[in-house]
Amino acid sequence: MAKDYYQLLGITPSASGDEIKRAYRRMALKVHPDVNMDNPEAAEQFKAVTEAYGVLIDPRKRQEYDRHQAAFDPGRVFEDIFSNSEYRKVFNEMPLKPEWVERFFNIGKVFVYEALVYGGRPQDIIRRGIIRLAAKSAANLFHNVMDIHQDIAIPPAVAERGGYVTLEYRPGFSLKRIRVHVPQNLHNGSILRVQGMGRSNPAKKAGDLYLHVSISPS
């Protein structure tokens, strides 16, 4: 059975485009995950009303839905929203964060970032997104090689109150000793990132040191 997109947005089948946008803003802000952190279903509700908006705001999709109660692929609906400057304007008034767009909408957050921040024609968004993705892939490859991961044991008192610990590790051929700041209320399984203290390449660019925390027995 097809979803009732009109019911999801709380509108009638005769609603105009402006009414659809207003209804979506109202519903999206009501079920937005950032506003409903204690509601585990908020993300799915937000996706559902966004899918309804994407179908009903597009005249061709809306006509197909009205005539045949057609089912739509949510991922494709979301992509079409973000590739159309007129449809995505509705997000300007919402706390839409590119970092969680990929998780909620199942589309590349790089392309969404380009669309939301810079706009432009779909082909321009895709081109800039590809360039950004290439740069991101190169950065990921660099960190996969240059980052160092090491276990560290933190005394219970320091883990609770915060402070500093000294550790030795080997970023290259020689042993290195550093002093690391420990934030308060640290727990087993936490990871401390020490920026720029990983392996160095000939260009003097360094990766990061990741310390995997275990709390020492009292």
List the helices and strands and how they pair.
Blueprint: H1 5-9, H2 17-31, H3 42-56, H4 59-68, H5 74-83, H6 85-88, H7 98-105, H8 109-118, H9 122-146, E1 148-154, H10 156-161, E2 163-169, E3 176-182, E4 191-194, E5 209-215
Parallel strand pairs: 1-5
Antiparallel strand pairs: 2-3, 4-5
Helix pairs in contact: 2-3, 3-5, 7-8, 8-9
**Total helical elements:** 10
Distance between the termini: 59 Å
Strand order of the largest sheet: 1-5-4
> How much β-strand is present in the residues?
5-15%
What count of domains describes the coordinates? Answer: 2
Residue share in helix: 40-55%
Descriptive report:
This protein is α+β, with helices and mostly antiparallel strands and 218 residues long. The protein has two domains: 5-140, Helix Hairpins (Orthogonal Bundle), CATH 1.10.287; 147-215, Urease metallochaperone UreE, N-terminal domain (HSP40/DNAj peptide-binding domain, Sandwich). The chain is built from ten helices and five strands, in the order H-H-H-H-H-H-H-H-H-E-H-E-E-E-E. The protein has helices at residues 5-9, 17-31, 42-56, 59-68, 74-83, 85-88, 98-105, 109-118, 122-146, 156-161; strands spanning 148-154, 163-169, 176-182, 191-194, 209-215. The strands form two sheets. It has a three-stranded mixed sheet with strand order 1-5-4. Strands 2-3 form a two-stranded antiparallel sheet. Strand 2 (163-169) and strand 3 (176-182) form a beta hairpin. Helix 2 (17-31) runs antiparallel to helix 3 (42-56), helix 3 packs across helix 5 and helix 7 (98-105) packs across helix 8 (109-118). The longest helix is centred in the middle third of the chain and has 25 residues, at 122-146. 19% of the residues are buried. The model has no long low-confidence stretch (mean pLDDT 77).
